[in-house]
């Protein structure tokens, strides 16, 4: 049920101790496209990252198309090749950034607070951590009167793992156990937290603020995600702030005067998207 653009799978020994935790933030759309154009590559990647014994039929629906929720990518213990939670999609990421690219000034007051923006713009869920934070960052760029886009390749990426307060039995910095296994250092989409075999201990022997790691969620609390907005021609793309909130957000925002403007505006020139 994790819906903050980060999902994981935990590998345990027979006694329950954790030997590895694998994290992914890669959207399902890429995999659906790749399966339709190069199914052999999909199989190769699954064998390299999930299980060498994976067979083509393990990844397909009864109709013979790629199944994002296949048996190797639908739980929390057999693997995590890419995201499957319904909100964790590329489309959701784009819609979120697009909606946040509009500046808004209901009642004549320019909004700058992350929570006010997400509620007024109705481009995400205010109770999540990701939506208000990402939207606030994108809107900050919008307030510089710039053309705005998303950096290529468009997606959510791992920004890093903060291991402050973590400790290992032999004093090794736990940050060294975090390895990017897919993507680049700047745009990582897959990572593994695993203690090398020659250390003689496991992930479960690493502590976070004095408590041993028993669940993957303990690690995820210290992972940062990022969406990268690009601002071009700063100061040269002035657009008057929208005077109200989106209709479905008006009640929450406590407004009476509202607009129903699209969250993705396309002025004739220059375009902001």
List keywords for this structure.
single chain, 273 residues, alpha+beta, four-stranded antiparallel beta sheet, three-stranded antiparallel beta sheet, globular, disordered C terminus
Q: Can you walk through the features of this model?
A:
The protein has 273 residues and is an alpha+beta fold. The protein has a domain at 90-153 and 228-253. The protein has 7 helices and 11 strands. The protein has a 4-stranded antiparallel β-sheet with strand order 1-2-7-6. A 3-stranded antiparallel β-sheet has the order 5-8-9, with no helix packed on it. Strands 3-11 form a two-stranded antiparallel ribbon. Strand 1 and strand 2 (18-24) form a beta hairpin. The longest helix is centred in the middle third of the chain and has 13 residues, at 130-142. It is globular, with a radius of gyration of 21 Å. The two termini are 30 Å apart.
Topology overview:
Elements: E1 7-12, E2 18-24, H1 28-37, H2 39-49, H3 90-100, H4 114-121, H5 130-142, E3 147-150, E4 157-161, E5 166-167, E6 178-183, E7 188-194, E8 207-208, E9 211-212, H6 216-220, E10 223-226, E11 229-232, H7 250-253
Antiparallel strand pairs: 1-2, 2-7, 3-11, 4-10, 5-8, 6-7, 8-9
Helix pairs in contact: 1-2, 3-5, 4-5
């Amino acid at each position: 049920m994790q819906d903050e653009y980060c999902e994981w799978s935990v590998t345990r020994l027979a006694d329950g101790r954790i030997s590895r935790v694998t994290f992914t933030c890669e959207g399902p759309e890429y995999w659906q496209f790749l399966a339709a154009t190069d199914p052999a590559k999909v199989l190769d990647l699954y064998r390299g990252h999930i299980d060498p014994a994976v067979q083509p039929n393990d990844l397909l629906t009864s109709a013979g198309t790629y199944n994002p929720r296949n048996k190797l990518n639908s739980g929390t213990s057999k693997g995590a090749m890419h995201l499957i939670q319904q909100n964790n999609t590329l489309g959701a990421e784009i819609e979120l950034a697009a909606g946040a690219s509009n500046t808004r000034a209901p009642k004549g007051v320019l909004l700058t607070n992350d929570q006010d923006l997400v509620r007024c713009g109705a481009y995400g869920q205010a109770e999540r951590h990701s939506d208000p934070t990402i939207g606030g960052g994108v809107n900050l760029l919008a307030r510089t009167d710039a053309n705005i886009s998303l950096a290529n390749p468009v997606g959510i990426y791992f920004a890093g793992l903060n291991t402050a307060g973590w400790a290992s039995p032999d004093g090794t910095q736990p940050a060294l156990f975090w390895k990017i296994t897919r993507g680049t250092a700047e745009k990582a989409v897959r990572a593994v937290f695993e203690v090398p075999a020659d250390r003689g201990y496991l992930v479960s022997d690493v502590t976070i603020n004095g408590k041993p790691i028993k669940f993957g969620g303990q690690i995820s609390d210290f992972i940062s995600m990022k969406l990268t907005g690009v601002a071009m021609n700063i100061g040269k793309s002035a657009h008057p702030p929208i005077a109200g909130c989106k209709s479905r957000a008006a009640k929450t925002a406590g407004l009476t005067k509202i607009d129903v403007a699209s969250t993705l505006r396309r002025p004739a020139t220059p375009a902001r998207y």
